[in-house]
Automatic annotation (TrEMBL):
Pfam families: PALP (PF00291). InterPro entries: ACCD_DCysDesulf (IPR027278), TrpB-like_PALP (IPR001926), TrpB-like_PALP_sf (IPR036052). Belongs to the ACC deaminase/D-cysteine desulfhydrase family. Its cofactor is pyridoxal 5'-phosphate. Coiled coil: none annotated. This is 1-aminocyclopropane-1-carboxylate deaminase. Keywords: Pyridoxal phosphate. Residues 3-266 form the Tryptophan synthase beta chain-like PALP domain. The keyword Coiled coil does not apply. It comes from Hymenobacter glacieicola.
Length: 279
């Protein structure tokens, strides 16, 4: 297991890698504000808010769904606000149209100029940060396959550009009905490198019932894994990926004697959204 959850104390996992070159580009373009999107328990919103606090950038989070004034903010959004993020709530119908130019223009008219990051942070500048993981890992150990959880597909696309067609990559979708990710990942790698890679597979059967669904079986798996290995998994991404990896091992998917690296992409702040600790 590659412990990317330990790569930064406040921006752990793949979020640090996806934000790295976007933050540099925002500075290069003279922006002092980041605007981005996410659900109410988004790791990405939490990471952007922390990045803003660490770098002195103003941050704006556009949250899917209308704000309920009768309820306090959930732990993820409360921490984002504590980190200085301004929260704007968008009804779900409009949120689905967030990439349309007129919707973005209306948001920027309200907030002022900003460097816009997509939901999940998956754009072309996210890829080189994730690609850097490959030579870093290769300097530590020889390996035959990389396994990573997928939400928007940006991390997987970055790994593919880093692998450059060598070795194998497996993406484990955390969302139900995520077949669309194949086209999204392929589009990102084509834009980044001009190439469409064949050395990867997207597995969509390990979603555990859907995004942010924590079944009793998955909770038990997380508890047992932590007891056995001393590693806490997040309930949305890495835990589902590891269920899949171990299932593939049991099925003899990987060549005997090969080295398979599973990437822990962080996301432990998601536990706050479930109101408890798995242990």
């Amino acid at each position: 297991m590659l412990r990317e959850d330990l790569n930064h104390p406040e921006l752990p996992g793949n979020k640090w890698r996806k934000l790295k070159y976007n933050l540099l580009e925002a500075r290069r373009l003279g922006h002092d504000t980041l605007l981005t999107f996410g659900g109410a328990y988004s790791n990405h919103l939490a990471a952007v808010a922390a990045a803003g606090r660490l770098t002195g950038l103003r941050t704006i989070g556009v949250v899917r769904g209308e704000e309920l004034s009768s309820r306090p903010l959930n732990p993820t959004l409360a921490q984002a606000r504590a980190d200085g993020m301004e929260l704007h709530f968008l009804d779900r119908a409009t949120y689905r149209r967030k990439q349309e130019p007129e919707v973005e223009a209306a948001l920027l008219q309200k907030t002022g100029p900003a460097y816009v990051l997509p939901e999940g942070g998956s754009n072309l500048l996210a890829l080189p940060g994730c690609a850097e993981l490959v030579p870093e890992l290769a300097a530590l150990t020889a390996f035959d396959a990389l396994c990573v959880a997928c939400g928007t597909g940006g991390t997987l696309a970055g790994l593919l550009t880093g692998l450059a067609g060598q070795r194998e990559a497996l993406g484990f979708a955390a969302l139900k009905g995520a077949d669309f990710l194949r086209a999204d990942v392929d589009a990102l790698t084509r834009q980044a490198s001009g190439l469409s890679y064949a050395n990867w597979t997207l597995l969509t059967q390990y979603h555990g019932g859907g995004y942010a669904r924590l079944s009793p079986e998955l909770r038990s798996f997380i508890q047992e894994f932590q007891h056995r290995h001393g590693v806490l998994l997040d309930p949305i991404y890495t835990s589902k990926m590891l269920v899949g990896v171990l299932d593939l091992l049991n099925r003899g998917y990987f060549r005997r004697g090969s080295t398979v690296v599973a990437i822990h992409t962080g996301g432990l702040q998601a536990w706050a959204g479930f109101g408890d600790n798995p242990t």
